[in-house]
Amino acid sequence: MRPIKPEVFERMVALRRDLHQHPELSWQEERTAARVSEVLQSLRVPFRRVAGTGIVADIPGPSGVPRIALRADMDAQPIQEETGLPFTSVHDGVMHACGHDGHTSMLLGAAELLVAEPTLPAPMRLIFQPAEEVGGGARAMVQEGVLEDVAMVFGGHLDPRYLTGTLVITEGIVNASTDAFRIRITGRGAHGARPHEGIDAIVVGSAMVGQLQTIVAREVNPAHPAVVTVGRFVAGSAPNVLAETTELEGTIRAQDPAVREQILRALHRIAGACATSHGANAAVEITEGTPAVQNTKEMVALALDAGAALPMPPTVRPLRDANMGGEDFGWYLQHKPGCFIRFGAGTPGEESKPAHSSQFTFDEEALAIGAAWLHRVAITAGHRLRGGPGDGG
């Protein structure tokens, strides 16, 4: 038995499959936004376009009460799909490999449930966000005012590592901060047969890669998860020529803001010292990414109350391990209280495929639970705002 009506579920599945078949990359979600608009129009929910392809919809409620916001992301990834699904992507090299097609469908399902309520405890805001995968969508939406007159904001992510029927609700950090770095090393070119006449940027870069790994291994408290990864190393033009320049690119992940700053300082220090020790120069460029996503005790309690109030109470559990993946929902939580959870979407007996994999998919039954929880947490939060019991019942 599903926690929503069969006809609502069927519409969600049909929409999810349509979106999955027509994925769009970050900032290019024009067709997706059009499909979202069509559904909102059919529900007679007012909406507007923001941040390019983003959509904000408002469901009216009592006056003088701030809004409860629910958010879904819409973009896909530059991945060639290999799932073999009958509704596989029609666009070569583009795929919904992270479940955003499901998130969008769930929020529209929740919208249908909210519109059907005879009365709402608070006005509701639905945020359909572009460009989560590149980390800029949430920030752009916030800058365009989507959190104005909002009291709380909620969202979630499908996760096949947990079985369908599971809500993963964790107090504290649930996603790490994400920053990118680029280090350009400049040495002096020379003939490969006379290395003493040059400064080999490849040698400098190789030494730097090793030294950067000591930041987490020897400078960060082991109790605070962190990652420094060099994922790109570009250098050289010919086998008999000393490379004059080398470029390293990588990612920094941290769960503690203080550790995040510590790593950034250490990266600048080590890059500079390593280059200087070889007589080279290093220019470090940091691209700020997303902040960590942190759920507070109060908001987790509200999320748990909403789960317990569902017609078929799901299994609730915390995250198994510290999650070093990024999620730009953190930008919303920089401004408003809220909670970000995970919806179990794995099928018993089937091996789950990792997010951002060419074979990623999920159990569509999870859509019903996701929509039901989004609906219930909005109602629960609205009652809490007005001093009610907060369970939405």
Please characterize this protein's 3D structure.
This protein has 393 residues and is an alpha/beta fold. It is built from ten helices and 16 strands. The strands form four sheets. Strands 1-2-4-3-5-16-6-15 form an eight-stranded mixed beta sheet, sandwiched between helices. A four-stranded antiparallel beta sheet has the order 10-12-8-13, covered by helices on one side. It has a two-stranded antiparallel sheet with strand order 7-14. Strand 3, helix 3 and strand 4 (124-129) form a beta-alpha-beta unit.
Quick description:
Helix content is 33%, strand content 25%. It is α/β, with parallel strands linked by helices.
Notable traits:
393 residues, alpha/beta, eight-stranded mixed beta sheet, four-stranded antiparallel beta sheet, 16 strands, 25% strand, elongated
| Binned strand content | 25-35%
Strands, count: 16
Radius of gyration: 24 Å
Low-confidence residue ranges: none
Q: Give the overall form.
A: elongated
What structural class do you assign from the helix and strand content?
alpha/beta
Order of adjacent strands in the largest pleated sheet: 1-2-4-3-5-16-6-15
- In DSSP terms (H or I, runs of 4 or more residues), the helix count works out at 10
Instruction: Return the string of H and E elements.
Output: HHEEEHEHEEEEEHHEEEHEEHEHEH
The main sheet comes to:
8 strands, mixed
User: How many angstroms does the end-to-end distance come to?
Assistant: 20 Å
Share of helix, binned: 25-40%
Output mean pLDDT: 96
